[in-house]
Design a protein that fits this description.
The chain is built from ten helices and ten strands. The strands form two sheets. It has an eight-stranded parallel beta barrel with strand order 1-2-3-4-5-6-9-10, surrounded by six helices. It has a two-stranded antiparallel ribbon with strand order 7-8. By secondary structure, the protein is α/β, with parallel strands linked by helices.
Length: 242
Amino acid sequence: MTINQRDLAKMIDHSLLHPTMTDDEMQRGCELADRYQVASVCIKPYAVKQAAVWLADSEVLVGTVIGFPHGNSPVNIKVAETQQACQDGAIEIDMVVNIGKVLSGDWGYVTYEIDAINDAVVANDRVLKVIFENDYLKPEHIKKLCEICNAIHVAFVKTSTGYGFVKQANGMYSYQGAVADDLILMRETAKKSIEIKAAGGIRTLDDLLAVRKLGVTRVGATATAEILDEAQRRLDQGIALA
């Protein structure tokens, strides 16, 4: 099947989450998202209401984050955040699991949290993406989270926030984000009805095409223009996107 630029654009959630982003920068980000007709913007929670205005006449959806980026808020606060986001106009909700509870193996708590937030999302006819933050996890954690999400019938499972920095031996912090082995495991374990979102490290067209081949249907990206401009450049040169 031939892939065109629009196919790739509709895989992208244009990320507007960096803590230093100003309101003007977020507005310009929404304008860019509209220009390229991506799937959605994923914007800071306080800016959801304004983004809904900026994108009122666009096909681009407004999304936001819950418990971001570390997932440490109590469940009732995450649910309240979710309800506020829906009220403000968010259509897609990306929540961060309680990572410490995952690593503790407190699966009852983890299940309760995801279920409570999914209930709030579904009640508002919205879409939930559950962020695992795979850099902190082992394959058995990722598999178990997928199984919990299967039972709850969430819409998406997602690799990372893009801010899950791990301290390295040299004292510096870095992250891998969307790793092929993790994506393969997620696609194998999650039900076919659950979509996979890759986030963290999707910076080039080739990155996007690579994760697409692994069954990813959505990515979080900040390099949206660069990715889609490169796609169009190749198409204009008669180079098939594969």
